[in-house]
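Convert to structure. Protein one:
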Amino acid sequence: MTGLFVSRKNLNKQALPALLFGIHMKLSEVLLEENVGGYDLFLRALIGSALLIALVMDLIETYPWDWIAAIVAFGSIFSAIIRHCTPYYFLGINTAKK
């Protein structure tokens, strides 16, 4: 039972993900690896831009849908800019050319 507890001085960047997921991973590898490219990159930028234009032109007026569209728009544009999708990393999907 003592293996579940980690002292503060022994806690490093890899310890928290290892405790949460039960595996050993590098945080920089999870957050910085390029795994979006090709058609996926184009579709993310296109959908994000279309939603952003629809929000600016006030085509989406009802309360919950405008916030949902804003979150999807900025999320897809951001992931297209940095070429990274964290769920893709955990699912093992990589559409970027190597």
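Protein two, convert as well:
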Amino acid sequence: MNAKIEAINSLRIIDWYGNGGECEYVLVDDTPENRKILMDAGFTEDELNVPEVSYDDGSLDVAYLAFNSGAEWFNAKLRMFGLEDNMMLHGDGDK
């Protein structure tokens, strides 16, 4: 797994939504600590501040980051993103 996906998976998810097998959003708190974890993994401040990621309600949509960093799926039960090489974990997740 790549460092960016591992960093995203280490964050506490506060909300998510999937519809028809598609992952619409996965939200984490927009805190200095979470931003540091993401930036230490290789994300830039510019990537975290785009409207698709940084919401006015104080949350970050990490689904956008994950899928643009190579994630192939999101497993709602495990609350994690994954790559094709570990599809065995996909199970009942939403992509």
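DSSP finds four helices and five strands in the chain. The CA atoms of residues 51 and 61 lie 9 Å apart.
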